[in-house]
Protein backbone atom coordinates (compact mmCIF):
# COMPACT_ATOMS: atom_id res chain seq x y z
CA UNK A 1 0.00 0.00 0.00
CA UNK A 2 1.26 3.42 -0.95
CA UNK A 3 0.55 6.38 1.37
CA UNK A 4 1.33 9.99 0.37
CA UNK A 5 0.92 13.01 2.61
CA UNK A 6 1.02 16.52 1.16
CA UNK A 7 1.52 19.20 3.82
CA UNK A 8 3.29 22.50 4.54
CA UNK A 9 4.66 20.82 7.71
CA UNK A 10 6.42 17.64 6.50
CA UNK A 11 8.28 17.40 9.86
CA UNK A 12 4.93 16.94 11.61
CA UNK A 13 4.69 13.45 10.05
CA UNK A 14 8.19 12.36 11.14
CA UNK A 15 6.78 10.60 14.24
CA UNK A 16 5.60 7.91 11.82
CA UNK A 17 9.24 6.83 11.45
CA UNK A 18 9.16 5.73 15.12
CA UNK A 19 5.90 3.77 14.88
CA UNK A 20 4.78 0.33 13.69
CA UNK A 21 3.95 2.06 10.41
CA UNK A 22 7.52 3.32 10.06
CA UNK A 23 8.71 -0.25 10.63
CA UNK A 24 6.25 -1.53 8.02
CA UNK A 25 7.62 1.14 5.67
CA UNK A 26 11.06 -0.37 6.21
CA UNK A 27 9.87 -3.83 5.11
CA UNK A 28 8.03 -2.58 2.01
CA UNK A 29 4.57 -3.50 3.40
CA UNK A 30 3.73 0.19 3.39
CA UNK A 31 5.35 2.78 1.21
CA UNK A 32 4.99 6.18 2.93
CA UNK A 33 6.05 9.42 1.22
CA UNK A 34 5.67 12.87 2.77
CA UNK A 35 5.68 15.87 0.37
CA UNK A 36 6.16 19.57 1.06
CA UNK A 37 3.32 21.48 -0.65
CA UNK A 38 5.65 24.47 -1.13
CA UNK A 39 7.64 22.41 -3.66
CA UNK A 40 4.78 23.20 -6.08
CA UNK A 41 4.86 26.99 -5.62
CA UNK A 42 6.55 29.23 -8.20
CA UNK A 43 6.96 32.55 -6.38
CA UNK A 44 9.85 33.77 -4.25
CA UNK A 45 7.80 33.58 -1.07
CA UNK A 46 6.49 30.09 -1.83
CA UNK A 47 2.92 31.31 -1.20
CA UNK A 48 0.28 28.62 -0.58
CA UNK A 49 -2.64 30.78 0.67
CA UNK A 50 -4.66 33.92 0.04
CA UNK A 51 -7.52 35.84 1.67
CA UNK A 52 -11.02 34.30 1.50
CA UNK A 53 -13.20 35.56 -1.36
CA UNK A 54 -16.34 37.15 0.08
CA UNK A 55 -14.44 38.13 3.22
CA UNK A 56 -14.05 36.47 6.60
CA UNK A 57 -11.32 35.44 8.97
CA UNK A 58 -8.08 33.66 8.18
CA UNK A 59 -6.54 32.45 4.95
CA UNK A 60 -7.57 29.85 2.35
CA UNK A 61 -5.16 27.53 0.55
CA UNK A 62 -4.84 28.23 -3.19
CA UNK A 63 -6.32 25.68 -5.63
CA UNK A 64 -3.57 26.17 -8.26
CA UNK A 65 -0.77 25.08 -5.91
CA UNK A 66 -2.83 22.11 -4.64
CA UNK A 67 -3.75 21.14 -8.22
CA UNK A 68 -0.13 20.86 -9.32
CA UNK A 69 0.81 18.96 -6.17
CA UNK A 70 -2.05 16.46 -6.37
CA UNK A 71 -1.66 15.89 -10.15
CA UNK A 72 1.95 14.91 -9.44
CA UNK A 73 1.25 12.70 -6.42
CA UNK A 74 -1.79 11.03 -8.02
CA UNK A 75 0.24 10.71 -11.25
CA UNK A 76 -2.38 12.48 -13.43
CA UNK A 77 -1.89 14.80 -16.40
CA UNK A 78 -2.99 18.45 -15.87
CA UNK A 79 -5.35 18.31 -18.89
CA UNK A 80 -8.78 17.30 -17.49
CA UNK A 81 -9.77 15.15 -20.51
CA UNK A 82 -6.51 13.19 -20.39
CA UNK A 83 -6.78 12.97 -16.59
CA UNK A 84 -10.33 11.58 -16.80
CA UNK A 85 -9.12 8.90 -19.26
CA UNK A 86 -6.16 8.03 -17.00
CA UNK A 87 -8.50 7.63 -14.00
CA UNK A 88 -10.90 5.43 -16.02
CA UNK A 89 -8.04 3.27 -17.33
CA UNK A 90 -6.59 2.85 -13.84
CA UNK A 91 -9.98 1.85 -12.43
CA UNK A 92 -10.26 -0.69 -15.25
CA UNK A 93 -7.11 -2.42 -14.02
CA UNK A 94 -8.58 -2.60 -10.48
CA UNK A 95 -6.12 -0.05 -9.08
CA UNK A 96 -7.80 1.94 -6.32
CA UNK A 97 -6.59 5.46 -5.53
CA UNK A 98 -8.29 7.50 -2.79
CA UNK A 99 -7.78 11.19 -2.11
CA UNK A 100 -8.42 11.94 1.58
CA UNK A 101 -8.98 15.55 2.58
CA UNK A 102 -9.00 15.84 6.39
CA UNK A 103 -11.44 18.57 7.42
CA UNK A 104 -13.67 19.25 10.45
CA UNK A 105 -16.47 19.70 7.87
CA UNK A 106 -16.06 16.14 6.55
CA UNK A 107 -18.00 12.90 7.12
CA UNK A 108 -17.00 11.15 10.34
CA UNK A 109 -13.99 8.81 10.09
CA UNK A 110 -14.85 5.50 11.81
CA UNK A 111 -13.47 1.96 12.03
CA UNK A 112 -15.66 1.19 8.96
CA UNK A 113 -13.89 3.96 7.01
CA UNK A 114 -10.52 2.56 8.12
CA UNK A 115 -11.50 -0.95 6.97
CA UNK A 116 -12.55 0.45 3.59
CA UNK A 117 -9.39 2.54 3.09
CA UNK A 118 -7.25 -0.48 4.03
CA UNK A 119 -8.32 -2.02 0.67
CA UNK A 120 -6.96 0.89 -1.40
CA UNK A 121 -3.72 0.67 -3.39
CA UNK A 122 -2.88 4.33 -2.79
CA UNK A 123 -4.20 6.85 -0.28
CA UNK A 124 -3.17 10.50 -0.73
CA UNK A 125 -3.73 12.90 2.18
CA UNK A 126 -4.17 16.59 1.32
CA UNK A 127 -3.51 18.34 4.65
CA UNK A 128 -4.89 21.86 4.79
CA UNK A 129 -4.01 24.56 7.31
CA UNK A 130 -5.59 27.96 8.00
CA UNK A 131 -9.30 28.01 7.11
CA UNK A 132 -8.93 25.10 4.71
CA UNK A 133 -8.33 24.34 1.03
CA UNK A 134 -10.30 26.05 -1.77
CA UNK A 135 -13.43 23.87 -2.13
CA UNK A 136 -12.90 23.48 -5.90
CA UNK A 137 -9.95 21.14 -5.23
CA UNK A 138 -11.90 18.12 -3.90
CA UNK A 139 -14.68 18.98 -6.40
CA UNK A 140 -12.22 18.87 -9.32
CA UNK A 141 -10.75 15.46 -8.43
CA UNK A 142 -14.24 14.06 -7.87
CA UNK A 143 -15.18 15.29 -11.37
CA UNK A 144 -12.15 13.45 -12.77
CA UNK A 145 -13.54 10.24 -11.26
CA UNK A 146 -11.05 10.06 -8.39
CA UNK A 147 -12.50 8.66 -5.16
CA UNK A 148 -12.41 11.65 -2.79
CA UNK A 149 -13.19 11.36 0.94
CA UNK A 150 -13.47 14.54 3.03
CA UNK A 151 -13.06 13.14 6.55
CA UNK A 152 -13.36 14.51 10.08
CA UNK A 153 -11.89 12.58 13.03
CA UNK A 154 -14.40 14.00 15.52
CA UNK A 155 -16.40 16.96 16.68
CA UNK A 156 -13.64 19.34 17.72
CA UNK A 157 -11.38 21.69 15.77
CA UNK A 158 -7.68 21.16 15.04
CA UNK A 159 -5.39 23.73 13.43
CA UNK A 160 -4.76 21.56 10.40
CA UNK A 161 -5.20 18.16 8.80
CA UNK A 162 -1.80 16.75 9.84
CA UNK A 163 -2.83 15.30 13.22
CA UNK A 164 -5.96 13.84 11.60
CA UNK A 165 -3.84 12.28 8.82
CA UNK A 166 -1.63 10.66 11.50
CA UNK A 167 -4.73 9.21 13.18
CA UNK A 168 -6.18 7.89 9.92
CA UNK A 169 -2.83 6.42 8.80
CA UNK A 170 -2.37 4.53 12.07
CA UNK A 171 -5.94 3.20 12.01
CA UNK A 172 -5.64 2.06 8.38
CA UNK A 173 -2.06 0.75 8.35
CA UNK A 174 -2.58 -1.59 11.32
CA UNK A 175 -5.36 -3.36 9.38
CA UNK A 176 -2.96 -4.33 6.59
CA UNK A 177 -1.67 -7.90 6.78
CA UNK A 178 1.74 -8.09 8.42
CA UNK A 179 1.75 -4.59 9.93
CA UNK A 180 0.47 -5.57 13.38
CA UNK A 181 2.32 -8.30 15.31
CA UNK A 182 -0.80 -10.18 16.39
CA UNK A 183 -3.74 -10.31 13.91
CA UNK A 184 -6.03 -11.61 16.73
CA UNK A 185 -5.95 -8.20 18.41
CA UNK A 186 -7.52 -6.66 15.28
CA UNK A 187 -10.76 -8.68 15.60
CA UNK A 188 -11.56 -8.49 19.33
CA UNK A 189 -11.12 -4.78 19.95
CA UNK A 190 -13.55 -1.91 20.52
CA UNK A 191 -15.54 -0.73 17.50
CA UNK A 192 -14.71 -3.84 15.48
CA UNK A 193 -18.07 -5.50 14.80
CA UNK A 194 -20.54 -6.08 17.66
CA UNK A 195 -21.03 -2.34 18.18
CA UNK A 196 -19.88 -2.67 21.80
CA UNK A 197 -16.84 -1.25 23.57
CA UNK A 198 -14.19 -3.75 24.59
CA UNK A 199 -14.49 -5.42 28.01
CA UNK A 200 -11.98 -4.40 30.74
CA UNK A 201 -8.76 -6.42 30.78
CA UNK A 202 -6.61 -7.61 33.70
CA UNK A 203 -3.28 -9.30 34.29
CA UNK A 204 -1.21 -10.44 37.29
CA UNK A 205 -0.89 -9.79 40.19
CA UNK A 206 -4.42 -11.06 40.94
CA UNK A 207 -4.57 -8.81 44.05
CA UNK A 208 -3.19 -5.27 43.69
CA UNK A 209 -3.60 -2.37 46.14
CA UNK A 210 -6.69 -3.91 47.66
CA UNK A 211 -8.29 -4.71 44.29
CA UNK A 212 -8.57 -8.49 44.39
CA UNK A 213 -9.86 -10.08 41.17
CA UNK A 214 -10.54 -13.32 43.06
CA UNK A 215 -13.19 -11.30 44.93
CA UNK A 216 -14.50 -8.98 42.17
CA UNK A 217 -14.20 -11.34 39.16
CA UNK A 218 -13.98 -14.96 40.42
CA UNK A 219 -15.15 -16.17 37.00
CA UNK A 220 -11.96 -14.83 35.43
CA UNK A 221 -9.86 -17.33 37.41
CA UNK A 222 -12.29 -20.27 37.07
CA UNK A 223 -10.98 -21.64 33.78
CA UNK A 224 -14.64 -21.89 32.68
CA UNK A 225 -14.32 -20.25 29.26
CA UNK A 226 -18.04 -20.04 28.36
CA UNK A 227 -18.57 -18.30 31.74
CA UNK A 228 -15.66 -15.92 31.06
CA UNK A 229 -17.05 -15.08 27.62
CA UNK A 230 -20.50 -14.43 29.14
CA UNK A 231 -19.13 -12.19 31.89
CA UNK A 232 -16.93 -10.28 29.45
CA UNK A 233 -19.93 -9.63 27.22
CA UNK A 234 -21.92 -8.33 30.23
CA UNK A 235 -19.02 -6.02 31.06
CA UNK A 236 -18.84 -4.80 27.48
CA UNK A 237 -22.56 -4.03 27.52
CA UNK A 238 -22.41 -2.23 30.90
CA UNK A 239 -19.48 -0.14 29.74
CA UNK A 240 -21.14 0.77 26.46
CA UNK A 241 -24.39 1.79 28.23
CA UNK A 242 -22.44 3.97 30.71
CA UNK A 243 -20.01 5.57 28.27
CA UNK A 244 -21.56 5.51 24.81
CA UNK A 245 -25.36 5.91 24.80
CA UNK A 246 -25.05 6.83 21.10
CA UNK A 247 -23.72 3.32 20.34
CA UNK A 248 -26.57 1.74 22.35
CA UNK A 249 -29.11 3.72 20.31
CA UNK A 250 -27.53 2.40 17.08
CA UNK A 251 -27.60 -1.19 18.39
CA UNK A 252 -31.30 -0.83 19.25
CA UNK A 253 -32.07 0.65 15.82
CA UNK A 254 -30.27 -2.31 14.17
CA UNK A 255 -32.19 -4.82 16.30
CA UNK A 256 -35.51 -3.14 15.46
CA UNK A 257 -34.56 -3.25 11.78
CA UNK A 258 -33.73 -7.00 11.98
CA UNK A 259 -37.04 -7.72 13.78
CA UNK A 260 -38.98 -5.85 11.11
CA UNK A 261 -37.36 -7.99 8.41
CA UNK A 262 -38.17 -11.23 10.29
CA UNK A 263 -41.86 -10.25 10.76
CL1 LIG B 1 -9.78 16.14 9.80
N1 LIG B 1 -9.17 18.59 10.52
C1 LIG B 1 -9.22 19.63 11.37
N2 LIG B 1 -8.55 20.75 11.06
N3 LIG B 1 -9.92 19.62 12.49
C2 LIG B 1 -10.56 18.49 12.75
C3 LIG B 1 -10.55 17.37 11.93
C4 LIG B 1 -9.84 17.45 10.80
N4 LIG B 1 -11.32 16.40 12.47
C5 LIG B 1 -11.78 16.92 13.59
N5 LIG B 1 -11.35 18.17 13.77
TrEMBL record:
Q: Where does S-adenosyl-L-methionine bind?
A: 128, 153-158
Record's subcellular location: Cytoplasm
Task: Return the GO cellular component terms, semicolon-separated.
Answer: cytosol
Does this UniProt record's set of keywords contain Cytoplasm? yes
Main subcellular location of this protein, as a coarse class: cytoplasm
First and last residue of the signal peptide: none
Which reaction(s) does its UniProt entry say it catalyses?
guanosine(37) in tRNA + S-adenosyl-L-methionine = N(1)-methylguanosine(37) in tRNA + S-adenosyl-L-homocysteine + H(+)
Q: Does the keyword Zinc-finger apply?
A: no
Q: Which GO terms describe its molecular function?
A: acyltransferase activity, transferring groups other than amino-acyl groups; tRNA (guanine(37)-N1)-methyltransferase activity
The alphabetized UniProt keywords are: Cytoplasm, Methyltransferase, S-adenosyl-L-methionine, Transferase, tRNA processing
EC numbers on record: 2.1.1.228
Task: Output the GO biological process annotations, alphabetical, semicolon-separated.
Answer: tRNA N1-guanine methylation
Q: What does this protein do?
A: Specifically methylates guanosine-37 in various tRNAs.
What does the record note on quaternary structure?
Homodimer.
**According to its UniProt record, which protein family does this protein belong to?**
Belongs to the RNA methyltransferase TrmD family.
Q: What is this protein called?
A: tRNA (guanine-N(1)-)-methyltransferase
- What is the originating organism of this protein? Actinomyces respiraculi
Query: Taxonomically, what lineage is the organism?
Result: Bacteria, Bacillati, Actinomycetota, Actinomycetes, Actinomycetales
Amino acid sequence: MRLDVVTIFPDYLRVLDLSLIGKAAGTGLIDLVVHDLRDWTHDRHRTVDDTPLGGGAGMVMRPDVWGEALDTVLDLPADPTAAREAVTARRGTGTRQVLVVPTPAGELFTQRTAEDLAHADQVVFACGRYEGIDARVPEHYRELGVEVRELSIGDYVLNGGEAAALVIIEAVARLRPGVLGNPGSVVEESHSEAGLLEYPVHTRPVAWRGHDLAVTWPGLLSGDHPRIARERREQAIARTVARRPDMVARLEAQRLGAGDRAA
